[in-house]
Amino acid sequence: MINKSILVLYATLATFSLPNITLYGLRSDSIKDVKTEFTKLRRFDLLGRKYEANGDKHQALQTYLTALAYNPNFIETRFAKKGNLPNAQPRSAHIIDRIPEWNGQPLKKKSILIYSEKGLGDTIQFSRFLRDFAQQHNPRKIKFITNKHLKDLIKNSFSGIRNFYVIDESTNIARMKFDYQASLLSLPHKLGVSLNECKKSTSYLKVPNKKRFAKIKEFNNDKLKVGIIWQGNPNHINDKARSVDLKLFHSLAKIPGVQFYSLQKFTGREQLKAWPKKFPIIDLDQRISTWQDTTDLITHLDLTICIDSAVAHLSGALNKKTWLLLPHITDWRWLGFSENSSDIWYNNLTKFQRASKENWEMLFKRIQRELSKLAQERLSKKK
Length: 383
What we know:
- The chain has 13 helices and twelve strands.
- By secondary structure, the protein is of the alpha/beta class.
- It folds into three domains: about 1-85, no CATH class; about 85-195, Rossmann fold (3-Layer(aba) Sandwich); about 215-380, Glycogen Phosphorylase B (Rossmann fold, 3-Layer(aba) Sandwich), CATH 3.40.50.
- Strands 9-8-7-10-11-12 form a six-stranded parallel beta sheet, sandwiched between helices.
- Strand 4 (about 140-145), helix 7 and strand 5 form a beta-alpha-beta unit.
- Helix 2 runs antiparallel to helix 3 (about 55-70) and helix 5 packs parallel to helix 12 (about 310-315).
- The radius of gyration is 21 Å and the shape is globular.
């Protein structure tokens, strides 16, 4: 089922000045119609991904083309079909109809509204292009509208951009004046960025106070510190495929020299009750109230192992060692199935993706071997 919170957000934005609703590149007069159309297109999209995962790229392409013939603006399939950023344009419709969409026009002495349109992870992933955009086009003013939970993190990380302001999605922007507007996810296309140019070798998110959690009791040990996330938002359309049972991590708990930390919030925390008492996990829940808290804590970890979630993007954007758990069929962000474990987005992120005949238990055996090596290397250095 489509994420209801996203529907509510777009319906709210639509009341500012739009006569109809836009979602994932779909436009209609009611949420019900958008939801119905999304469901139809999503079926084509998922079928195409299954063909692709089984190696039938021709049939996958034909399925994607069928979806795009029905609605050319369906961005999930546009990314899957194109496979490269210059030809992938997330959402062609405007957030406010009266404001022209920016398509490369000169921005000197002009103002622009940039808006994030999807999940928290997408905002973190594509925020890397904000600085390049500002440097290349030097607009008079940039206002970036984003989720309230990311407001401070984005503001702190990109404070060096001249005349850059961050506002959260609850702000009524209907009467604000802008010369242009653009979607955050459209910036790489409009900047002419190729996939090969996406990776950042250094962190593009900032930690204002790196020593903030340095001396807390939870980190008072010399073990390999590993943070974990196993459950995503249950309302996410692909959550059943991406989330895993915490029990899968139990086999890793006995590895000598490793201390696990739970970064999990909300759904999934109930599984901590079954964690083996012989190898205690340290729960950081009470330390986490904001995304800036999570950011600051990750800087003190040696490794983060997590499912495809916003935390994966956060850890990657901090250039911290990250192991990403992926199902066999994944989306355009991770370029489908690949034997190559390296990632195009983050320099220090390694993908652990299930092969076609591999279940999660088999994947975790691979992780156990790699984590054992990492822990042993750390022990050897200490001697």
